């Protein structure tokens, strides 16, 4: 019984060592993943839809800190179709491919309590 238990531990440690080394050697080959939810973008709400419609590139400017909220004096009256168009454009800019063949599973928008009266 002790011999089989010892054999199991040797096998487990050897497997762990091989797996660790294999991952280490392939670490440089890993794919870099961009997480959209971890990235903020600056936009111009008043011209964004026109810019997307005209195929302008780089309409979403990546920034490191959360941008200021659009002031209440500058309402944004986008429709559901507009939001989907914007989502497609940011996806295309970030990943370099279109949403053709993709279907929306969910979409999430949030705001801070102090921003609750902003927007329509």
SSE diagram, text form:
Elements (H helix, E strand, L loop, with lengths): L1 H24 L14 E3 L5 H6 L7 E3 L16 H16 L25
Write a concise keyword list for the protein shown above.
3 helices; 2 domains; two-stranded antiparallel sheet; about 120 residues; about 40% helix; 2 strands; about 5% strand; single chain; mainly alpha
Number of helices: 3
Coarse shape? elongated
N to C succession of SSEs: HEHEH
Strand content: 5-15%
Account of the protein in words:
This protein is mostly helical and 120 residues long. It has two domains: 1-30; 36-115, no CATH class. The chain is 38% helix and 5% strand. The protein has three helices and two strands. The protein has a two-stranded antiparallel sheet. The protein is elongated, with a radius of gyration of 24 Å. It starts with a helix and ends in a 25-residue tail after the last helix. The mean pLDDT is 77.
How would you sum up this structure in a few lines?
This protein is mainly alpha-helical. 38% of the residues lie in helices and 5% in strands.
């Amino acid at each position: 019984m002790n011999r089989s238990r010892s054999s199991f531990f040797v096998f487990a440690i050897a497997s762990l060592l091989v797996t660790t080394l294999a991952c280490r050697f392939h670490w440089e080959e890993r794919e870099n993943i961009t997480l959209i939810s971890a990235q903020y973008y600056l936009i111009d709400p008043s011209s964004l839809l026109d810019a997307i419609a005209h195929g302008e590139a780089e309409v979403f400017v990546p920034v490191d800190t959360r941008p200021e909220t659009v002031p209440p004096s500058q309402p944004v009256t986008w429709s559901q179709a507009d939001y989907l168009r914007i989502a497609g454009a940011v996806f295309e800019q970030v990943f370099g491919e279109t949403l053709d063949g993709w279907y929306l599973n969910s979409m999430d928008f949030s705001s801070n309590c102090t921003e609750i009266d902003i927007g329509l």
